Amino acid sequence: MNFRKIAFISVKLLILEIAEGHQNSNLNVSSINMKNIAYQFFVKLLLSLNILILTSELSASDWPQWRGPDRDGSWNETGLISEFDSPTLKAQWSAPVGAGYSGPTVSDGRVYLTSRIEESDEVEQIHCVDEKTGKEIWKYVYPCVYIELGYPLGPRAAVTISEGKAYALGAMGHFHCLDAATGDVIWKRDLAVDYKVGKLIWGIAASPLVDKQNVYLIVGGEPDAAVVALNKDNGKEVWRSLDGMGSYSSPRFIEQAGKRLLLVWSGDWFATLEPNTGKPAWKLPFERAKMVINASDPVVDNETNRIFFSSFYDGSYLIQLDSKSTDAEMVWSRRGRSEIHTDALQGIITTAFIRENHVYGLDSYGELRCLDMDTGDRVWSDQSLLNKGRWATAFFVQNGDKTWIFTELGELVIARLSPDGFERISATQIIEPTTHLPRRNTKILWSHPAYANKHIFARNDRELISVNLSN
């Protein structure tokens, strides 16, 4: 139920009735009738105000896809805890799962996640558990042997929920459309086979994007199938677009010059595509320094019509969108002499964010940085969030003027980032990191959490948990 809509309609009807009553009162000279009308209006006004209060209190929302409802890392709920009162927060429930890098999603009272187990057979799993209790609702399991896959822990892509369907993509390209309530298979595709996918060292990772007609995927297929669109109801190909390699960066929609476009960052192109045809509205070459490693998402600043990109080996880029046409141009690009000696921001997994003409993100070894968006110049850097380490990772979500940060060590941090610096407001441990990585002395956790209905949902290689964040 949409309480905001109810409140808006109620107040609108009240105003119309007051106006009508005022007109009728000109014809009715009875003071008693006028008192009755005033009393009725007063009661209805109180009811409408109660609805408005209820609306402000019930601002809960689901997290049905990668990085939230709009794929922008925004979390708009209110009534949240402002500071943690303990160095650890206890989970409300824990559900057993296998290993993986994929993050959970939440929709209609259910939580979805993919994982992998290696026992007698190698399989990938799609989990669905109850949001309130963590009890299993259904689980779909299918054979999946990992071949020449770097970091073969498990699936990477988040499950996308749309109109009662769950779209789940595995690391080797197994793609399933399931009934979100029952787990029954509606259709499935083997993308690696169907599209002759070129080798992506770390597997197929970009989370599926769905609209009313299609599901959009970055797969790196041949010929000219870096990006494909499938009919969301039957899986048949609608179009394919762009030559070259795929990438690990997930697609999203943007608005430009009054048009809805599909924004993609493939292994060879920055581009926007027409959703119905796949025809590029604009595309600019992405000239890689080494292999494809762009894993973070493009960051869109709607106020200035600019898009920021950051890659581990390749540095930072800023693209300006034309507001009157579907054209774009590169404003600046900056790359250091190596992934160690970097310029601007050279991130890998963490998606940066933009606020008031500044970019905030994590550099290649976990250094938190602030950039001037106009130039890419560094405003400040800070190593206090994470210890220095290759590929050090944290996930940022914006809630009002605060940034909620979930680190690779399973720590949840409430912070405020500004051109003046990094302010750590409060922090607590919510889950144990369990993944071992080469070149790192500590175990880590590289899975973006979901924030839904005043809870955080996070996973490691053994469990999926829910933690209450309401005040």
Could you please describe the fold and organization of this structure?
There is one protein chain. It contains three helices and 32 strands. By secondary structure, it is mostly beta strands. The chain has two domains: 55 residues; 376 residues, 7 Propeller (Methylamine Dehydrogenase, Chain H). A four-stranded antiparallel beta sheet has the order 1-32-31-30, with no helix packed on it. A four-stranded antiparallel beta sheet has the order 2-3-4-5, with no helix packed on it. A hairpin with a 5-residue loop joins strand 24 and strand 25. Helix 1 packs antiparallel against helix 2. It is globular and about 50 Å long.
How many helices? 3
Q: Which regions have little confidence, pLDDT < 50, spanning 5+ residues?
A: 1-32, 41-59
Helix content: 10-25%
Quote the CATH topology of the largest domain.
Methylamine Dehydrogenase, Chain H
Just name the CATH architecture of the largest domain. 7 Propeller
Strand content: 35-45%
Largest sheet: 4 strands, antiparallel
- Number of beta-strand segments: 32
Q: What do the pLDDT scores average to?
A: 90
Gyration radius (Cα, Å) is 24 Å
Task: Label this structure with key terms.
471 residues, Methylamine Dehydrogenase, Chain H, single chain, mainly beta
How would you summarize this macromolecular structure in one to three sentences?
By secondary structure, the chain is mainly beta. Helix content is 11%, strand content 39%. The chain has helices at residues 3-25, 31-57, 191-194, and strands at residues 93-96, 105-107, 110-118, 122-130, 136-143, 160-162, 165-169, 174-179, 185-190, 209-210, 214-221, 225-231, 237-241, 252-256, 259-265, 269-273, 280-285, 299-301, 306-311, 315-321, 328-334, 353-355, 358-362, 368-372, 378-382, 394-399, 402-407, 411-418, 421-429, 450-452, 455-459, 463-468.
